[in-house]
Amino acid sequence: MLFQGFLNLNKPFDWTSHDCVARVRKLLRLKRVGHAGTLDPAATGVLPIALGKATRLLQYLPENKAYKATIRLGMRTTTDDLEGEIISSQACGGLSLEEVKTALAQFEGKIEQIPPNYSAIQVDGKRLYDLARQGKMVEVPVRTVEIFHIEILDWREGDFPELDVAIACGSGTYIRAIARDLGAILETGGTLAALIRTESSGFDLTDSLTFTDLEAKLQGGTFQPLASDAALQHLLSVTLPATSAQKWCQGQRVSLNSEVTGIVRVYQEETRFLGVGQLQDEVLIPQMVFEPIS
């Protein structure tokens, strides 16, 4: 069976995103498999997987993400999480929750962030984590990211207190960097102790499948991918009559009486998903024809 659409995968601990793609490719016997929003091996949670022609839709997915994170204070590591070597460790049992709340408030909104040295960002064509493993430290470019909301879920006192937070943020945000920078503001050091991605690209953790779930559904013959346009609901949609739909699928621009502008989902007769287009001055321009009409 040729699968096409999306899989909302709950990524297991200690797997890379590439590992997950390779496993899905093998389980489904499918060559074209891709993912949106890389997750670190130590993180778990939502990893959107595109199957078949849906890989062409990855560029159009929404970018917002949400996480549940545990931050441990009093400790710094080389990777800004517990996977790295400890750089410094100092007990900070006297730290209060009020001090943490005040410091954490500085992270909401648009902020400047320096990604971790161990990250997939490229500098001069080389991944930072490759350079770091070679012992080469380079200046990491600052980037602007947006944190929509941070909520404190739990606070555990001790020599190395831990803070559980829920974070909603935009694309490119490193939660490890938030843990590191929070520790810097508090002058205690901080590192990420655990991370679960609860939302990504329109997919939610509550609806995700583990590999165990996926394998059981495959064995039972009940697995069905999510529809290819399921992750594009943030885009407005337009519907074409049959004649215009055929021209559009052949790569032609078609006139459309609509007040909508920008990137849109394109349908024929409201149910058949044809692809993604751009509406400009009542002209619909093909961007990605997903389902040609013969």
Commentary on this structure:
By secondary structure, this protein is α+β, with helices and mostly antiparallel strands. It is 19% helix and 37% strand. The protein contains six helices and 18 strands. The strands form four sheets. Strands 1, 2, 3, 4, 7, 10, 11, 12 and 13 form a nine-stranded mixed β-sheet that branches. A hairpin with a 2-residue loop joins strand 17 (272-280) and strand 18 (283-289). The longest helix has 12 residues, at 17-28. The protein is elongated and about 70 Å long. It starts with a strand and ends in a 5-residue tail after the last strand. 33% of the residues are buried. The mean pLDDT is 92.
Number of helical regions: 6
Provide the low-confidence segments as ranges.
Answer: none
| Main beta-sheet annotation | 9 strands, mixed
Helical content (DSSP H or I, runs of 4+): 10-25%
User: How would you classify the quaternary structure?
Assistant: single chain
**Which outline best applies?**
elongated
SSE topology string: EHEEEEEHEEEHEEHEEHEHEEEE
The N- to C-terminal Cα distance equals 22 Å
Provide mean pLDDT, rounded: 92
Strand content: 35-45%
How large, in whole angstroms, is the Cα Rg? Answer: 22 Å
